[in-house]
Amino acid sequence: MSSVPVTTWSLEQTSPADLLPAAAPEGDVRIVRAEVPSPEFSRFLYASVGGDIRWTDRLGWTYARWQEHLDRPGVETWVAFDRGTPAGYVELEPQDEGAVEIVYFGLIPAFRGRRIGGHLLSYGAARAWDLAERWPRRTPTKRVWLHTCSKDGEFAMDNYQRRGFKLFDTKVELEPDVMTPGPWPEAHRA
Length: 190
Fold this sequence. Notes:
The relative contact order is 0.28. Strand 3 (76-82) and strand 4 (85-94) form a beta hairpin. Strands 2-3-4-5-6-1-7 form a seven-stranded mixed beta sheet, with helices on both faces. The chain has a single domain, classed as Gcn5-related N-acetyltransferase (GNAT) (Aminopeptidase, 3-Layer(aba) Sandwich). It is an alpha+beta fold. The protein contains five helices and seven strands; from the N terminus they run E-E-H-H-E-E-E-H-H-E-H-E.
């Protein structure tokens, strides 16, 4: 199997004041927390958002592994709906010393380019900052961080920086050149 170089950038906010919210998009776009841990729904979101940009690390997870991950205190999934249809999601994972990672964030291909992404990222970052209010045993958030890579969408880095995230690390590594897992080759923006 051949390999390709992949650049990974890590970005952070160190204060809630760092967040620069995007305007809400026009139309009926709602963001709702998926409060009932559902491996089926989480796997659907993961595969639908990341299928065309080679998200593969969780595709082999068993149902039990998904359930174990989602049951961890403080792990949250916030889902954007456009007129009742799932459009994308942001997954938050608390870590030690008041850090919260935005582990996954993105939109299903048909919903990209509609100004939903900036709004969803703003909302997700705000929920990372107030996560301890929903999980009283958690340390208050002192840092929100994420990573993006050269495989992600062409506007990902710009969106993160426009929301106030600052670059703190860059790495280049060789990764296996895997086939795009889907959702379908003909999936496109509607």
